[in-house]
Amino acid sequence: MGWSGQGQEFWLQVLFAQILFALAAVLGLASRRYSRLALAQAFPWFSLFALAFSVYIWLNLAQHLHGFTEAWSVAAYTAAFVALWCAALQLLPHTPSGLQPRWVCMASFLLGGLWMTAYTSFNLDPERVLRLLTGALAFPAITATAYALRRHAQVHILPLHVPHLYRTLRTGGIALFLFGVLWLAEQWFPLPYHVFWTLLQVLLLGIFAWAMMRGLEIFEVETRQRMEAMEISQARMLERQNIARELHDHAIQNVYAAGLMLQSLMHELPQAWQDKMERVLDAINTAHRQLRGLLLRLNTQEHDGEIDLAHALKGLVEETVRMSGANVVLRIDIPQTAWDARRAAHLLAFVREALSNAIRHAGSPRIEVRVSREGENIRVEVIDFGRGMSPVTRPGFGLRHMRDRALLLGGQLNIESRPSKGTRVVLTAPLQGM
């Protein structure tokens, strides 16, 4: 842009620089706030653009002062539009080559530094250099940013249901593009009525600055969305708790009680009926396991990745005693019982299955559950003093289920049993996070 030296144009240039400086200050302060939105993350680049462009204007107004040379003006001009190019990349992060925006920006500033080195080394004509930079850097950066604002508003702002913000950003993008057209035209072609075109540029830049400052509302929109997401999450958690309570207090207890009553009745039925009742009992046990698995998934979602294993085991044993009337003793000898929720789910399912098998088949006066530490492993034992198993007993679904849980825990299952000597089921698995 040529400087006429007339009073009107001088004050327009001052207003030009003040608008840019105000934009740089506002966006610079706002960029200190954390946000995951692309528009907010582009604010630092917009702030750097406005600051460097403001410095360029002031340097041109103060060229007669000692110590300021054209090289400083060219450096500020280059930095301003490299920063604007980086803002466009931040709003449109998917570059054709798949590069991340920050690497492209670093490369752009590196090229800008090399350009300044060449400029100072070869003592090029400043006026021709500025025309070249306007055509090769400034106008492409302005065009890319105007398109990026429009595209970002369509894709990311419009779905947020804030139409006024969407219209504001679109208007800001259009104003920036028109400013770029006038800026390019004035650099390359002498325009009549110079003061009029300068005033129009100031107005367009003011509209762009107003749009960007109003774009700060995106922080409030993001905060409101986070609050709504927290409320929805809380409502879902309460609903899961209600479902889990209903499952625990009614459905699971009724299915478990039905299985135990059927188990006790089987010994009083004729042999011809027992095979059929065994299939019915298997179906009831399968339904019970599925309900327990659903309940466990509902409960583990309420924790931030960890649950108290000792507390969960005590609750499991107390429920088993209440439902079956069996004499179950729990002994826990580990220093810390905070476990990853997923791993705890597998371990609890293992203990539940082992207790269920002991209650149904062992006929034991007492069942013990022992949890201890063995080096870097956890050792879980479920011991009964009942009938035991014959060496030729074929493993059923329950044993296969426990073996699968052991594999999921990265451990091993060992079963020690002899007829009339009871059964000891042992799980050894890595601690991993206890």
Model description:
The chain contains twelve helices and seven strands. With 434 residues, the protein is α+β, with helices and mostly antiparallel strands. It has two domains: 7-226, Rhopdopsin 7-helix transmembrane proteins, CATH 1.20.1070; 305-434, Histidine kinase-like ATPase, C-terminal domain (Heat Shock Protein 90), CATH 3.30.565.10. It has a five-stranded mixed beta sheet with strand order 2-4-5-7-6. A two-stranded antiparallel ribbon has the order 1-3. Helix 1 (7-30) runs parallel beside helix 7, helix 5 packs antiparallel against helix 6 and helix 8 (218-266) packs antiparallel against helix 9 (271-300). The two termini are 69 Å apart.
What is the highest CATH level, the class of the largest domain? Mainly Alpha
User: Shape, please?
Assistant: rod-shaped
Largest sheet: 5 strands, mixed
**Tally of discrete structural domains:** 2
Strand content: 5-15%
Major β-sheet strand ordering? 2-4-5-7-6
Helical amount: 55-70%
Mean pLDDT over the residues: 76
Order of helices and strands: HHHHHHHHHEHEEHEEHEE
Q: Low-confidence runs (pLDDT<50, min 5 residues)?
A: 1-5, 95-99
User: How many runs of DSSP E, i.e. beta strands?
Assistant: 7
CATH topology of the largest domain: Rhopdopsin 7-helix transmembrane proteins
Could you tell me how far the N terminus lies from the C terminus, measured between alpha carbons in angstroms? Answer: 69 Å
